[in-house]
Amino acid sequence: MGDEPTRYAMKQALQTFKAPMHAFWQQRSPRERRALQWAAVVLGLAALWSVALAPALRTWQEAPNKQIELDRQTQHMQQLQAQARQWQASPAISRAQAIEWLQAHAKDLGPDAKLQVQGELVQLSVQAAPADALAQWIGQAREHARARPVQAQMQQAPSPSKANTTPQVMWAGTLQLSLPE
């Protein structure tokens, strides 16, 4: 069997190491032996702490925060799943219906909002669309027209100043949406 030479070699190495260590131990006074024993106990406890106990304690302390984060991620995934199921259950929309919905609701973004159909894409151009209205319009375009934003080139536009109103964030630029197939 192949294990026998390995065992013999290990036994010989252990004997070679054991003899000098035994001689070293016998040469020490009882006080030095006690000090070495205590040092070995302290080193053993330090090794046990750093290898086994400290990582376990750290994991135990971090567990509640990680559980909260995982619960938050699970809730978000469940919301996305419910939204996907809702979209799957809703009737399919034709390309013409999508374009019609987008054109009918482009006016919600202001008088300067213009739609241009380019093959499978629709390009929306706005000069001064309120940020809230634009965000709501994009969400509704995804939901009602199944149009997905593919590219946006927007920049903040100067807000028209009106007395007694808080400044509103406005956007100008273009937004490309893909139409449903």
Radius of gyration: 36 Å
**Beta-strand residue percentage:** 15-25%
Q: Report the biggest beta sheet as strand number plus sense, adding barrel if it closes.
A: 4 strands, antiparallel
Mean pLDDT: 88
Give the terminus-to-terminus CA distance: 70 Å
Helix content: 55-70%
Main sheet: which strands, in order across? 1-2-4-3
Describe the global form.
Answer: elongated
Order of secondary-structure elements: HHHEEHEE
Number of strands: 4
SS field, number of helical segments: 4
For this entry, give a set of tags.
181 residues; alpha+beta; Alpha-Beta Plaits; 2 domains; four-stranded antiparallel beta sheet; 4 helices; 4 strands
Protein architecture, described:
With 181 residues, the chain is α+β, with helices and mostly antiparallel strands. The protein folds into two domains: 3-87, no CATH class; 95-178, 2-Layer Sandwich (Alpha-Beta Plaits), CATH 3.30.70. It is 61% helix and 19% strand. It contains four helices and four strands, in the order αααββαββ. It has helices at residues 3-27, 30-89, 95-105, 131-144; strands at 114-118, 121-130, 148-157, 170-178. A four-stranded antiparallel sheet has the order 1-2-4-3, covered by helices on one side. β1 and β2 (121-130) form a beta hairpin. The longest helix is centred in the first third of the chain and has 60 residues, at 30-89. The protein starts with a helix and ends with a strand.
